[in-house]
């Protein structure tokens, strides 16, 4: 199995592309400020999952999942800022929020599964 086979990875990867597309609509001065922060945090969520994936040391895999969760929270924060600055509609904020919440729950499930397996 590869990290690309995980549904949560696929969803996070798709969100990277959607967030990137969104940030390209920001005002020019925001492309390297808020836009850059959003692109980096959204990309870091699947990247951290990838880094820890399948490591023979379960704690390293769990750390990757934890960092991925943190990047999701950071991304949601940046999306809220974009919404407050009116670069993102309430509707799109809610859609992104729901998608990231689903990924967060999936990561939590993966984490719980690893913890159960690790205890055995």
What keywords describe this structure?
120 residues; mainly alpha; de novo design (two linked rop proteins); 4 helices; 78% helix; elongated
For CATH, the homologous superfamily is named as 23S rRNA-intervening sequence
User: Which strand-content bin applies to the residues?
Assistant: under 5%
Distance between the termini: 21 Å
Radius of gyration: 15 Å
User: What structural category characterises the helix and strand content?
Assistant: mainly alpha
Characterize the largest beta sheet: strand count, sense, and whether it forms a barrel. Answer: none
The name of the CATH architecture is Up-down Bundle
Number of domains: 1
Shape call: elongated
Give the CATH topology.
Answer: de novo design (two linked rop proteins)
- Number of alpha- plus pi-helical segments: 4
Would you mind describing this structure in some detail?
The two termini are 21 Å apart. The protein is mainly alpha-helical and 120 residues long. The longest helix is centred in the C-terminal third of the chain and has 30 residues, at 90-119. It has a single domain (3-119), classed as de novo design (two linked rop proteins). The protein is elongated. α1 (7-23) runs antiparallel to α2 (34-52). Helices cover 78% and strands 0% of the residues.
Short synopsis of the structure:
With 120 residues, the chain is mainly alpha-helical. The protein contains four helices and no strands.
Q: What's the arrangement of secondary structure elements?
A:
Elements: H1 7-23, H2 34-52, H3 58-84, H4 90-119
Helix pairs in contact: 1-2, 1-4, 2-3, 3-4
């Amino acid at each position: 199995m590869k990290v690309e086979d995980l549904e949560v990875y696929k969803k996070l990867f798709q969100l990277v592309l959607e967030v990137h597309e969104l940030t390209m609509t920001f005002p020019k001065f925001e492309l390297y400020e808020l836009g850059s922060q959003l692109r980096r945090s959204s990309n870091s969520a699947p990247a951290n999952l990838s880094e820890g994936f399948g490591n023979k040391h379960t704690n390293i895999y769990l750390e990757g999942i934890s960092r991925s969760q943190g990047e999701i929270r950071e991304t949601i924060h940046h999306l809220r800022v974009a919404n407050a600055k009116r670069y993102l509609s309430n509707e799109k904020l809610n859609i992104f929020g729901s998608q990231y919440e689903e990924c967060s729950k999936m990561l939590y499930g993966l984490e719980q599964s690893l913890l159960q397996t690790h205890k055995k």
